[in-house]
Each structure stands twice: as C-alpha cells, then as structure tokens.
Design goal:
Strand order of the largest sheet: 1-2-3-4-5-6-7-8-9-12-13-14-15-16-17-18
Strand content: 35-45%
CATH topology: Porin
Largest sheet: 16 strands, antiparallel, barrel
Structural class: mainly beta
Mean pLDDT: 87
Number of helices: 4
CATH class: Mainly Beta
CATH superfamily: Porin
Length: 441
C-alpha cells in the first residue's frame, strides 16, 4: 500500500461508502432455516461538468468520479423474536485530483474494509395492530424514505455550524449501517415513533451521545407527516472537548474594557418536520404509472435553537439556519422505478467547507464556520435522480445534481494533511453527473 493510500484510506473509504450501491435488498431468514446470505457488487463512473472554484490552481471541469466495491451480509433468526444481522465489505475510491499541475493531476486509489451491518433486533410484539421492538448496534435508519439526495437534516450533519449533507446514493438512504446506538420502535395503526440514542462517529468530538425522538403518521399510504427533535452531543464523553472554555465569542459593543463573552459548544438542538403526498392516489391511481410516481414530499429543519447575541452574530437569525427541501417523483411510466427531482433552499452564512471543522491535524476543530461574504450565491441546490432494478438482481442508477458534493481534494503526495472537504459547487449552474451499475442477490 502506498504512503498516500495509507494516509488517506479512511477518506477514500468514506467517499466510496457514500457512493455505494443501494441495491442490496433486505430479506428475512426464516426461523430455524439457517442463515440467509446477501451480497452485492457495484461500479460507478461520473464527472464534474462545471465548477467555478479556481483557488489554489484548481481546475475541476471534466474531472472523473470513479469508485467500486462489494459487500457480503448474513442474517439469522435464532427465535421468532430475535433477528441478528452482520455484514462486511470492501470499497475502492479516490479523492479528486483538482490541481492538474500537482503530481500530473493523478489521485491514487484508496481501498479499505467497512462494516455494512452489525446489529440485533428484538420484537416484543409484532402483530398487524401493534409493533414494539428494540434494536442495537450498527444499523440503517431513514425517517424520510421519499428523500433521495437532499434533506434528512435531523440526523445528518452537525449543529454548530449547521452543515448539511447530500450526495449520490449515500448510506443515509441505503440499507447499510448509518447509525451506531439503540432504537426503541413502537407502531400502532398508522402512527409510529422512535426513540434513538446514538453515538457520534462522523464528526468531532467523537462518541458523544445524542438522544433523538421521531414520530410519523401515515394515512393509508396516501399522506404521511412526521417530525422530530435531536439533542445533538447532549451527553459528552469529554465535556472539555464538546464545550471548550477557550472557544469564546467576545462582544465589545457593551463595554470595551469588560466585554461580554459566550463559550461556544458543539452541542445543540435540531428540530424537523417532513411530509409526503401521493397525488395519483387521490385520483384512484393509474395503471400506467409506477408506485413511486407523482409523490410530492418536503422537509424543513431548524438547526440550532440558541438565539443569543453570539449565535445570531455567528450563524444568523433562525431563517438562516432553516434548510428547506421539496421533491417530486416525476412520472416514469414504469420505465424507471424512480425519477426524483429535488430542490433545496438554505441561506447559511458560512462557507460550505467542513475541512477545518473535522480536521484530523492542527488546528483543532472548533464549532465555527468560515463566514462567506457572498453566501446567497449557493443558497439553491437541485438534484435529478433515476433508478431501475432489472430482473430483481441488477440496479442501474444515474444522478445529475448541483448539491453539497465534497469529493476531497488531493493536492499531491507532499501534502501531509487530510484531503480538504469543501463543497465544490457554488452556483445552481455548476453541476456533476454520476452513474452506477450494481449486481445483488
């Protein structure tokens, strides 16, 4: 393994994980029938079509997006109440060689293993009227199944600053592990709710505990509405990391000699609401359309409820902390399983760059974003996604988008820091495309 690959394998694996196939269909092993095995393999190719980021000699237009991987999973049901799942995989990906003058514009591939699932679920009740279960470990969790790319604000991304995540078939929308912790699930009729206790594994400070509550009401599969709250980093593993007394906001407007100071924290609260409506069901449906066609859906969140002078100055008013997305599944007439168009508005006042926030070197991460003097330019994001499963074993998917794409910029072998994680699309006119083919059984 090359020096670069050793240094950056984790970044490459995370990139590849975020781009892995969503084709591994969940199945259930019968009690006493022995283990149930699943597997999937995939390849992806795409390119950045337009990016206006030319800082540090960047030239990203036409740069390729390439990755591949495979995974294997097993499920066992020791009893009617207990189910155990475990899976591993290997992914190969690369950071973006955006500087053509650096090492010939070539970024080496990083290869590494990952865990796709490692959890148990115990069902206390499982009837048509009532369900109650407890799950623990590494498991997939998705409270808004209609969102394909944008949205899912409650559980993706930090609070301070309120960075939001997106991408092509990320693990947030696939049946692979995206949550480490515990879930208590209850459902009665069309109402279901979850109590989550999760451990932070993606953003500094790691391993802090974040309780969350999410509730959903589904009216006959025609209308769904839900909401939730996430107490992010509520229980710190090391309080000196989560709330560093040296990270302060100083307000000298009251008194230059005795200024007001506010200690800043990574901890904060998110609230979220989402809804969806199946338009075709209102008119009796259509035999020519697929089950996902003509669904409209939306999600809005408030990232960070602290509203003192310090947080207003750094993160803006509440309206600047409220990402809003809307989507519609366009009529695909069974040619595609899904054709989703999504748009997002978010007037965050800081640059869409998590490099310093989640840096693994020096300086240490701080709960601040770099202020953007022209932050309105990237307020609008959009995405068009299509997919088709063929003969129950092959999935083909394609996405064209101008979203929060953060490929990781490779600056050459002499760069000792991890690849930067800045978003590379600044305007709605800047975009990329990517495609994938996957085989699964």
């Amino acid at each position: 393994m090359s020096l670069f690959t050793m240094k950056h394998s984790r970044s490459c694996v995370l990139l590849a994980l975020g781009l892995m196939a969503g084709a591994l269909a969940p199945t259930s092993a019968e009690v006493g029938a022995g283990p149930k095995f699943n597997a999937a393999g995939w390849m992806q190719y795409g390119a950045i079509v337009k990016s206006s980021d030319t800082t540090q000699d960047k030239d990203m237009d036409g740069r390729s997006i390439i990755s591949s991987g495979a995974q294997f999973a097993v499920e066992v049901n020791p009893s009617e109440r207990l189910r155990i799942e475990a899976g591993i995989g290997a992914a190969a990906g690369h950071n973006l060689a955006a500087i053509r003058s650096s090492e010939g514009g070539y970024a080496p591939v990083g290869v590494g293993p990952y865990v796709s699932n490692a959890n148990f679920r115990y069902s206390f009740w499982d009837t048509e009227a009532t369900k109650l279960s407890f799950r623990g470990g590494l498991f997939p969790y998705d409270y808004n199944p209609d969102a394909q790319n944008l949205g899912l604000y409650l559980l993706r991304g930090p609070v301070y600053p309120g960075y939001v995540m997106s991408g092509f078939e990320t693990k947030a929308v696939l049946p692979v592990a995206n949550t480490l912790g515990f879930q208590l699930h209850h459902q009665t009729g069309g109402f279901e709710h979850d109590l989550l206790v999760t451990f932070e594994t993606e953003f500094y400070p790691y391993w802090d505990v974040s309780p969350a509550y999410i509730a959903t009401y589904n009216l006959g599969g025609v209308f769904r509405i839900g909401g939730g709250v996430n107490f992010y980093h509520l229980i710190p593993v090391d309080s000196k990391l989560t709330k560093d007394e040296n990270i302060i906001y100083v307000d000298t407007s009251v008194s230059a000699t005795s200024p007001d100071t506010t200690v800043l924290s990574f901890a904060g609260t998110k609230v979220m609401m989402n809804a969806s409506l199946d338009i075709k069901a209102l008119f009796g449906g259509s035999e020519s359309m697929g089950p996902e066609d003509l669904k409209i859906y939306t999600e809005v969140a408030l990232i960070g409820l602290d509203n003192d002078k310090a947080h207003k100055a750094l993160f803006g008013e509440y309206k600047d902390r409220m990402p809003m997305m809307a989507g519609i599944n366009l009529p695909a007439f069974k040619i595609l399983d899904k054709l989703a168009l999504e748009v997002e508005m978010y007037s965050a006042r800081f640059k869409d760059d998590i490099t310093n926030y989640n840096h693994k070197g020096s300086p240490s991460p701080i709960p601040l974003g770099k202020l953007d003097t022209n932050y309105s330019a990237d307020n609008l994001k959009w995405s068009l996604y299509g997919s088709k499963v063929i003969q129950n074993h092959v999935k083909v998917s394609l996405q064209v988008a101008s979203d929060h794409f953060r490929p990781g910029i490779f600056k050459g072998y002499s760069d000792n820091n991890p690849p930067s994680q800045e978003a590379v699309l600044f305007k709605p006119s800047e975009w990329y495309w990517t495609s994938k083919i996957a085989y699964f059984f």
